[in-house]
Amino acid sequence: LKEENASLRSRIYKLQIFSESQADKMRKLEKKLEENKIKEEKEAQDLEAMVQHVEQNLQLMTKRAVKAENSATKLKQENALLQVQLKNYKTENEALRSGQSASLAVVKQNAEVALQNLLTVITNSQSSIKQLISGAESLQLVADLLKSMERISEIPEDGK
């Protein structure tokens, strides 16, 4: 009976050690699970912040693109007006050559002013068009980024 009792005590002792080992493993796993939850929450918050930032940038770029488009339209209208004015100056210049109008110097001066105005409008138009193209490229980049973010959010949880 003493041997059996000693054997049972030994077995109980081993089971207690095993139980403590299992409990320790359980505590470690619970701690790791909690750390993973915190990490995932932080990643979700970071992702949400990034999405909001991208949305703000998209809105800003959209406003810029609209502004550039309006500017380009205005410059095109101004360009057309100056071309008409240049045509009138050329007509006047031809009339002066045939002796029907004021002095040749005034016509040359008017043509030079018209030419300078036309060159200024063309330069401004080119700059606005470049800005509009740059804005469109930026919008495309943001759209591609949002698509890739959408793909990231569609990855199943089993795929970790």
UniProtKB/TrEMBL annotation:
Entry keywords, A to Z: Coiled coil
Coiled-coil region: 19-92
Keyword Coiled coil: yes
GO cellular component: centrosome; ciliary basal body; early endosome; midbody; recycling endosome
InterPro entries found in the cross-reference section: ENTR1 (IPR026757)
Segments traversing the membrane: none
Signal peptide stretch: none
Example GO BP: positive regulation of cilium assembly
Keyword Mitochondrion: no
Family membership: Belongs to the ENTR1 family.
Protein name per its UniProtKB record: Endosome-associated-trafficking regulator 1
Species this chain originates from: Calypte anna (Anna's hummingbird)
